[in-house]
Amino acid sequence: YNLVLHKYGLKLYQGVEETVTLHLLEVSKRCIESADEDLLSRLKVEWEDHKMTMGMIRDILMYMDRNYVRQHPQQCVPVYDMGLRVFRDTVIGHARVRDRAIGQILAELRRELHGETVADPQLIKTALSMLVELSSIQTLPAERGVPETGYRTGPPLPASSPSSS
């Protein structure tokens, strides 16, 4: 409260962002070092912990969000959204995490489509929910398409207009 009141809102915001980033670099290392079969479980634990922690940080910094962040939308997003963006960029954005996680999700979905039993459907649901939530902050890099589905990736096609004949 006092930092924002005395015009140190940007310094506080940047300090929180830096601290969250440093923590998530460690989380990213743990995910990178996880065995393939443990990666989605590790991501689930880290994601749920991160969301809970960011919720507490948001509650503590509510005054900064309501006053400083609202007055500087070109420089800042709300603290909770900033935390999700940093998770996306630092953890999921790391190719060794993203590619392995998406590969495992696709493998599990293929198993399901072929009538095989999926080991932990809730884990897949959580991983997909995480990706959807993170993509709502800003689109994830579309480096990896999903050719197995037959769906086209990329920007939507323009709507066709009626002919003026």
Describe the protein in words:
Belongs to the cullin family. It comes from Perkinsus olseni (Perkinsus atlanticus). The protein is mainly α. Helices cover about 70% and strands about 0% of the residues. It starts with a helix and ends in a 28-residue tail after the last helix. Residues about 140-155 and about 155-165 have low confidence and may be disordered. It has helices spanning about 1-5, 10-35, 35-60, 60-70, 80-90, 95-115, 120-135. It is built from seven helices and no strands. The protein has a single domain (about 1-140), classed as 5 helical Cullin repeat like.
Chain-wise SSE layout:
Layout: H1 2-5, H2 9-33, H3 36-60, H4 62-71, H5 79-92, H6 95-113, H7 121-137
Helix pairs in contact: 2-3, 2-5, 3-5, 3-6, 3-7
Name given to the CATH architecture: Up-down Bundle
The CATH superfamily appears as Cullin Repeats
The CATH class is identified as Mainly Alpha
Number of strands: 0
Strand content: under 5%
The count of helical stretches stands at 7
Radius of gyration: 20 Å
Shape: elongated
Brief description of this entry?
This protein is mostly helical. The chain is built from seven helices and no strands. Helix 3 (36-60) packs antiparallel against helix 5 (79-92).
What attributes does this structure have?
Cullin_repeat-like_dom_sf; Cullin-3; ubiquitin protein ligase binding; 7 helices; mainly alpha; 165 residues; disordered C terminus; 5 helical Cullin repeat like; Cullin_N; Cullin
